[in-house]
Amino acid sequence: MSRRPDTPRTATRLRRFSPAERWAHRATAVLMGACLTTAAFLYLPALAELVGRRALVVTVHQWSGVALPVPVLIALASRALRADLTLLNRFGPHDRQWLRAALHRDRRPSSRPAGKFNAGQKLYAAWTAGATLVMLGTGLMMWFTHLTPLVWRTGATFVHDWLALTLALVVGGHIGKAMGDPEARRGMRTGSVAREWAEREHPLWRPDREPPH
After folding, report:
1. pLDDT tens, per residue, the chain with 213 residues
2. From CA 113, how far away is CA 119, in angstroms rounded?
3. Dist. CA 199–CA 106, nearest whole Å
4. With helix as H, strand as E and coil as C, how does the chain read?
5. Which residues contact 65 (CB under 8 A, 6 or more apart)?
6. What is this structure's pTM?
7. CA–CA separation, 38 vs 32, rounded Å?
């Protein structure tokens, strides 16, 4: 099997993410952080008193939410991102094995086979994408009150508020996992990871089969 010139078998680091993917991740993280932070200031009285300018907080929250999908939509021009989205949307037998091991707290590397993305990352990506779309839809109904009847807006408010809490917990878990894996963070920051880390954490990943970044 031939390998790309930039990923020889002797290389100590492997390319993992393209510049477009890293830019989209950072921009999305900033917007998500703005959404969750302003939501906390809007719904927690103790925090609301610290700001005072509720109208400004509402405006930042609304426009951050509307802009949240934009970085990924722009980055779809990157072939590397489209290829990774395809990988994230595919589940195989090894993903079920990974989930079984995670449920049984089996931390042996051999019990958690993974390609470029493990099953947990795939579930996180799918859930977050769906939650973002629901949050966007319900948020627009709450923002443009004249477009929908009152009963719809009441339901949208309920879903939006509780989903926001759930999203905050899930994102917090994502950040916690990232903080416990310095090499994964380095991969998202610089675009490359150590070969030893890749072979241990993602043994089924084949960088030589990926499109050029």
Report:
1. 444 444 444 569 999 999 999 999 999 999 999 999 999 999 888 887 787 788 999 999 999 999 999 999 999 999 999 999 999 999 999 999 999 999 999 988 889 999 999 999 999 999 999 999 999 999 999 999 888 899 999 999 999 999 999 999 999 999 999 999 999 999 999 999 999 999 999 999 988 777 666
2. 9
3. 18
4. CCCCCCCCCCCCEEECCCHHHHHHHHHHHHHHHHHHHHHHHHHCHHHHHHHCCHHHHHHHHHHHHHHCCHHHHHHCCCHHHHHHHHHHCCCCHHHHHHHHHHHCCCCCHHHCCCCCCCHHHHHHHHHHHHHHHHHHHHHHHHHCHHHCCHHHHHHHHHHHHHHHHHHHHHHHHHHHHHHCCHHHHHHHHHCEEEHHHHHHHCCCCCHHHCCCC
5. 31, 35, 135, 136, 139
6. 0.86
7. 10
